[in-house]
């Protein structure tokens, strides 16, 4: 009887060990891949939501009328119940004066400070990413400071003789009712409302400087969009200057958009 009892105990131990091996294999091999796919799907959702946000801003720019648009934003992705997994938290915020345009003319400098909307996903299994809406463009930043412009601003460059005419619609995101940030896992909302637009016409400018945390995609965009100009990239800015014998003009529209982050709308505009 004791011999059979010992055999039963050994069988139980072996079964537990086998179960532990299977569970460890699942945990180490399949779960990371599954969680990476979940986070990748979440980032695809965020990409589509930022496209909707960009569309909302463009609608405000075209209509220039007082109405609001709410766009959902899924902040994070949840862990898998009953398994050892980590949740991915996200944060979205409105950052005032994070982007600047400086126009140099013979009479001096004209500076315009713009607010941006920035979302950061603190992914655990998938590559960490940030989506930034600045000056009407959407920038994607991935870990290692790999930046790309996935949606350009409203911009055009035309040449007539030796005159290069630039046109830029600059979007200034301004926070309202102190609702500037939210973090977590759930779906929040970014609500935007048109405020005002100002237009500026600069003739024969010496340089156009873009100050940004993401100069590389701006350099690539401007360098491919403008001919007969020198485009130079620095750590925190991009400078556009006309080549010798050319005149550069700039028509600049600055649109102010109020934005709130969170459910509901506080205040009357």
Summarize the helices and strands and which ones pair or pack.
Layout: H1 2-63, E1 68-74, E2 89-105, E3 108-122, E4 129-134, E5 137-142, E6 146-151, E7 154-160, E8 163-175, E9 181-184, E10 187-202, E11 207-211, H2 215-225, E12 229-233, E13 237-242, E14 247-261
Characterization of this structure:
The radius of gyration is 26 Å and the shape is elongated. The protein has one domain (2-261). The model has no long low-confidence stretch (mean pLDDT 90). The chain is built from two helices and 14 strands. The chain has helices spanning 2-63, 215-225, and strands at residues 68-74, 89-105, 108-122, 129-134, 137-142, 146-151, 154-160, 163-175, 181-184, 187-202, 207-211, 229-233, 237-242, 247-261. 29% of the residues are buried. It has 269 residues and is of the alpha+beta class. The chain is 27% helix and 48% strand. The chain starts with a helix and ends in an 8-residue tail after the last strand. Strands 2, 3, 4, 5, 6, 9, 11, 12 and 13 form a nine-stranded antiparallel beta sheet that branches.
